[in-house]
Design goal:
mainly alpha; Growth Hormone, Chain: A; 8 helices; elongated
């Protein structure tokens, strides 16, 4: 509910708050996508090797909290690059989060329900993407007299990510206490094959 809505308003932020023209803003606000395109395979490879998925989700939330805090507190200026640092962090945080969250699903559901789990997760994500832009537009319109509305929009993003951090900590705790650290595991190909081939005991 934060990364993509943030990107949607970044061009406006760069033009209104930092006085870049449309072309310059277009070059700059593509930074998170470039970083994500380069880092996501590396992040995915790293998680495949070390596991620690719940912990990585927490780290991604911390990165995003720092990013939105920096963006919220950055002062207005003429064609300066205050927003570049948050954009870089957004790219890193999103790459880490996406690699960790999607790779966690097969570890916590039965193999026969994996497709359903991915579908439900995608549906929930899309529901958030319907709600978040509407809230962002409402907040921006109501607070436009203060920092062109961007301060409270980024405060909204910050609150969402603090909530996500708390949920990540809860997930990490549940995984340790109740789930035998399944999200920390690194399964070999043989382990995954055994999981797929093991028949379920009828209940």
């Amino acid at each position: 509910m934060t990364m993509l809505p943030y990107i949607m308003i970044t061009s406006d932020t760069l033009q209104t708050k930092y006085h870049f023209d449309k072309i310059q803003a277009g070059y700059i606000f593509g930074i998170p996508y470039i970083i994500s395109a380069c880092l996501s395979p590396l992040m995915g490879f790293t998680i495949d090797k070390i596991g620690k998925r719940a912990f990585m989700i927490i780290i991604s939330s911390v990165i995003l909290i720092i990013s939105f805090t920096a963006s919220m507190l950055a002062p207005e200026c003429d064609k300066c690059y205050n927003e570049v640092f948050p954009l870089i962090l957004i790219g890193i945080g999103y790459s880490l989060y996406a690699s960790a969250i999607w790779s966690s699903i097969p570890y916590v559901v039965e193999p026969s329900a994996t497709g359903t789990a991915f579908g439900i997760t995608t549906a929930i994500q899309n529901i958030g993407m319907v709600i978040a832009p509407t809230l962002v537009g409402y907040i921006k319109d109501k607070t436009i007299s203060h920092d062109y509305g961007f301060f409270y929009v980024h405060a909204f993003f910050l609150v969402i990510n603090i909530f996500g951090f708390l949920l990540g900590c809860s997930l990490y705790y549940i995984d340790i206490v109740d789930n035998n650290r399944v999200l920390d595991r690194v399964n070999s190909a043989e382990d995954l094959k055994e999981k797929l081939m093991t028949p379920r005991i009828p209940t």
